[in-house]
What does this fold into?
Amino acid sequence: MFEKLIGNNHVKEVLRRMLSSERIPHSLLLAGAEGVGKKQFALEIAKAFVCQNPKNFEACDVCASCRRAGKFEFPKSDKKDDFEKVIFSEHSDIGTVIPYKNSILVDAIRELVTEANFRPYEAKARFFLIDDAEKLNIAKDNAANALLKTLEEPPPTSYIFLISSRPDTLLPTIRSRCQTIRFAPIDKKEIEEFLLGTKKFSPTDAELLARLSNGSIGRALEIDLGKFREGREAMLKVLQSLLLREDRSVLLRTAEEMNDAKNKDNYDASLEILETLIHDVWVVKLGNETQVVNFDILPQIKNLAQNVESKRLASWLSEIEKMRENFQVNINRKIATDALFMQMASGF
Ligand SMILES: [Zn+2]
It folds into this structure.
């Protein structure tokens, strides 16, 4: 049932219409940001076909077929062999291929094409999901041609759904053979309600995660709030020392900590938090308090806002962006962070 999926009501409408008129495209591209539910929607379409008691053309979610449909056993190891094939769910007419490291392997595609040409085992159609489709690694060989041909003229009882968060990087020859359904970011309120519904989050945490999620349920669920708050505390101190105390030793100490080996993996996250905080201060200066991401520390944000000019915030953000770009050409992060904080401290 699409009912239990979150957000993207326009997609639900389109799919419901397609299902009830029996016009689901055999080659379909589900495109949209990471974590907005593309794969769940794809599975839901497949379930509508394999379900033993569909209701209004949608899966019942209770019959044996529905229950088996979404149960996949994905490889637990890094063994290449395990990715060179179609991974079937407990329902033998629903399979998927997923990338190994950064590409979907040619042998997996070859098997998908072969399987797509078989008649269904138990349902009235077969479904193949190509996850992270932009990682299709098809050179000009037989597998590539076979896939293109299958997408162009799919067997009448097979459906191939490509899932991609970067549809613009798909090969045009693939994209042009699929009908595309676009997914939008999910509304913050809907994410918050979903999180509250899981009963795993306090109201404040659910709201904070929703505001941090950029419209992605997947992202909301991945964020470790404990770690986030720890990083935020450090970045808040940076801004406070710049604007309230003019204490530069905090800046150098923070730059050092950010570049300490044990914090290496959090470096990008710290910069991102710093940017969000600066953005929040800016938003408050513009009088749009409701748009603040870090709403749970609003008093501190407001305090900073009273002590800074918008144009200084703008220049900070562009300094941080400039530094990030420079990281693409291997510069020394420690030196760059020191320089960034000193630059932020100067000039006004
Ligand atoms: Zn069912």
